[in-house]
Design goal:
The complex is a heterodimer. Chain A is α/β, with parallel strands linked by helices. Chain A has eight helices and ten strands. Chain A has a six-stranded mixed β-sheet with strand order 6-7-8-3-9-10, sandwiched between helices. A four-stranded antiparallel β-sheet of chain A has the order 2-1-4-5. Chain A is globular, with a radius of gyration of 17 Å. In chain B, helix 5 links the parallel strand 4 and strand 5. Chain B contains 13 helices and five strands. Classes of the chains: A alpha/beta, B alpha/beta.
Chain lengths: 227, 342
């Protein structure tokens, strides 16, 4: 087991946040977490990405507590919904900065630029890129340190159809390369043929955890997305 | 068209309320009002001056009698030697030291901290009035003025400009930069790499110190101000830039966005700058200023640049600055660990 989440909770008020969640993730899984806005998806992922401190509960990655940030930092790549890049610098600068901080050889930046079709944009300032391209740079940056677990919060949010397909193609490629991937979506139909496992959050609680086939045959899908 | 302009203006107003900019609209006039009141209340006539007299010096008995009779205007502090008087002067415990003026027998020489100050003016006016009361027409008793502060008026204002630069970088620039990194989630992105919180804080601190030192150096080059006691001067600048950079980083952590950081920065900047910078022209400010961290930097800067003091005489000040800076860094570390307002 690569990831073990136990009684993880973070409540902003009585209704918002994650009330409690426990689950385990094996290596190589591609998990989609679905739920309406405010269901607790982003809160869960931000806690897994060490962005926010939980109220209670534990997260173990390869048997190491997530609180020991320096021991797990290279194992997890977190990609937020809004790409958090240094806008006023170029794509190449952003990647090189993070490569330097992650003690990754600069040749890795060249590889990543090629892998993500970013060679043409390497000198472009990030602020001049479309959201889809920024998202691509953001994913590329997360992969610099070659983390085994990738966490993506709403990776297709605000993207057009073509860009959404491009992101899902990237997710598939990374999954095929052996990465464990967890991502959120509030459009379950889109990830029907992508995820190997679906988890549903509703009002801060995990209400479903199973295969895509089980999910689409279940009443949960009808109840949450009937309209 | 007017309707749209009105809606946009109202929206801008709502934004200024939301990001606390409106606080400055209240704070700045209130602060200026209080400042003006403090300056006005210390009129030259209203103030009671404190004069040091050297016990060994034999002054004209008529002058001594006049001073003693005017105890509501002049408070006398007896010192054993002129050096003891200078020490009290530097500690702001007396306003001036009166000695015999050997160049003009029968008259007095006045030693003050700063020649062009409200205290010097008050002493001259008071003694001129005492002389007129005692002798009627005739020459003034005080015929010579010496100042402890060295250099011209430009050099005398140098500590104030340096304080202004340090506070500007510490309270305005650094909090905004920290808040921007928080607002755009850049700090969280950086913490996805194997850097530690302490490394990030140290880098920010280093930035603040370097910006301050570069600004001060630039000021010296432009104004062609030479440094006195270079090591002591550099050390106190280092302690001050450490303290106020750490302070600024902490303020940045208290804010969710840049606009709030700017507002908070101004709220800290003005009360730290003005009382210290105006301590020499207002006794009220002179009383308030020592309570502020900025004064613990301003006073040593003055002492080193204008009074030839050395760091060993300013131990309390630099230890205070280093301790306060360290405390601020510790608070920032705790907030960063808690991912406060991120």
């Amino acid at each position: 087991m690569q990831l073990a989440v136990k009684n993880l909770a973070k409540l902003y008020d009585q209704k918002r946040g994650l009330a409690s969640a426990s689950f385990e993730v094996d290596k190589g899984e591609l998990i989609a977490i679905v739920g309406h806005n405010g269901a607790g998806k982003s809160t869960l992922l931000k806690m897994l990405g060490n962005w926010i401190v939980p109220d209670s509960g534990t997260v173990m990655i390869d048997g190491v507590d997530l609180k020991k940030r320096m021991e797990v930092v290279g194992k997890v790549g977190f990609i937020p919904e809004d790409p958090n890049l240094f806008d006023f610098f170029s794509v190449e600068y952003n990647l090189k900065l993070f490569a330097a901080l992650s003690c990754v050889p600069m040749s890795r930046v060249e590889d990543i630029l090629g892998d993500f079709n970013l060679l043409f944009f390497r000198r472009s300032k990030v602020q001049a890129l479309s959201k889809g391209l920024k998202q691509r740079v953001s994913i590329a940056r997360a992969l610099l340190a070659d983390p085994a677990l990738l966490i993506l919060d709403e990776p297709t949010s605000g993207l057009d159809f073509e860009m959404t397909r491009e992101i899902y193609r990237l997710l598939n490629a990374m999954h095929a390369a052996g990465k464990t991937i967890i991502f959120t979506s509030h459009r379950p139909e889109e990830i029907k043929n992508l995820a190997t496992r679906i988890m549903v959050l509703h009002q801060g609680r995990l209400v479903f955890d199973g295969s895509p086939q089980e999910y689409f045959q279940s009443e949960i899908h009808e109840e949450l997305y009937a309209s | 068209m007017m309707r749209n302009i009105l809606i946009l203006a109202l929206n801008d107003l709502a934004i200024s309320f939301k990001n606390k900019t409106f606080l400055l609209i209240l704070f700045i006039p209130l602060f200026v009002f209080l400042t003006l009141n403090l300056v006005d209340e210390t009129g030259v006539e209203a103030s009671r001056i404190n004069i040091g007299l050297v016990r060994q010096e034999t002054l004209d008995p008529a002058i001594i009698a006049s001073i003693s009779a005017a105890e509501n205007l002049v408070e006398v502090t007896w010192v054993e030697t002129p050096e003891e008087g200078i020490l009290l002067l530097k500690e702001r415990k007396i306003d001036g030291v009166l000695t015999r003026n050997d160049e003009a027998p029968g008259s007095l020489a006045l030693l003050v901290l700063k020649r062009d100050s409200i205290n010097t003016l008050a002493i001259m006016q008071t003694f001129s009035a005492l002389q007129k009361t005692a002798e009627g027409a005739g020459p003034d008793w005080i015929t010579g003025i010496d100042s402890v502060h060295q250099g011209g008026i430009q050099r005398e204002t140098l500590p104030m400009w340096i304080l202004m630069l340090i506070l500007l970088i510490g309270f305005i620039i650094l909090p905004a930069q920290v808040a921007e990194e928080k607002e755009k989630k850049l700090l969280l992105a950086l913490l996805q790499t194997p850097i530690t919180e302490v490394q990030w804080l140290t880098a920010k601190l280093l930035l603040g110190v370097l910006l301050i030192l570069a600004a001060v150096l630039f000021l010296h080059v432009l104004g062609q101000f030479g440094a006195v006691h270079f090591f002591d001067y550099f050390a106190i600048l280092l302690a001050g830039s450490f303290c106020f950079s750490a302070f600024g980083i902490f303020l940045g952590f208290l804010c969710r966005n840049q606009a709030t950081a700017r507002t908070l920065g101004v709220i800290f900047y003005l009360p730290h700058l003005l009382p210290s910078a105006m301590a020499d022209v207002s006794q009220q400010f002179n009383a308030i200023a020592p309570l502020l961290p900025s004064y613990q930097l301003y006073k040593p800067l003055q002492s080193i640049l204008l009074e030839n003091a050395s760091l060993s005489e300013l131990t309390f000040d630099w230890v205070y600055l280093v301790l306060l800076g360290s405390l601020m860094m510790w608070f920032s570390y705790l907030l960063l660990k808690r991912r406060w307002l991120m």
